[in-house]
Amino acid sequence: MTLPHLQIRDDDKVRILTLDRPEAKNALNGPLRSALRDALAAADRDDGIRAVVLTGAGPVFSAGVDFKQLERGPGENGGPLDTTPAAALRAMRTPTICAVNGACVSGALEVALSCSFIVASEQARFADTHALLGVVPTWGLTALLPRAVGVRKARQMSITGEFVDAHEALCLGLVNQVVPHDHLMDTVTAMARRIPANTAVGEMLGLYARGEDLSLAGALAAETALSVGRTYDLEAFTAAGNATAARQRNHGEN
Description:
Layout: E1 2-3, E2 6-11, E3 14-19, H1 30-45, E4 51-56, H2 85-91, E5 96-100, E6 103-105, H3 107-113, E7 117-121, E8 125-127, H4 141-149, H5 151-160, E9 164-165, H6 166-172, E10 177-179, H7 184-193, H8 199-211, H9 216-227, H10 234-253
Parallel strand pairs: 3-4, 4-5, 5-7, 6-8, 7-10
Antiparallel strand pairs: 1-2, 2-3, 8-9
């Protein structure tokens, strides 16, 4: 399936979304923003999808918002964060993995930071160029970037617009893993397949999201509150435990 400049395909319960405007460095114009937002919502509604992978048609991930085409896309009302792809990603209960295959700039960096986690190829580079363009971020960068790399590095990246390469991004905590470029999609889809297809995944992501705005005591209380009154199927729990142990043994042998 293809929406405006967005490729969509499924691979063993993993939905892969590929930004596809290579002639414009996959810049997010109005139609692409709307297509991406709608595709994310559709994936989140689909109980058969265990994870979403977001990547770009090479050689870049995305140059961010297309400042040459600032028209609104279908469904965009000019309001604040509620209509952006980044906000759609942060609202998802389905895990999202951003597979960054090249340059990831400004609005695209906000999108990547809004995913559950980020895997980068060795060719990935990250930058915030808002200040260079004389504009201020509106998709959450000033909240998300310092939480990933620390406020001092975030200030430096935003004020200077300098690029951070994949290996520095790993050292900073901006990405979870760096892999050889040709292995990026295989690595990410294999990672996505290891995510269990159960409601606990979405609930844990929700707890992590809530905990970002809470004290330690508040985050602990939120976790406790979620478990109060819950019952578990002991037979299913035991079967899942045995399957997990077997998988770990097989992984160790390989």
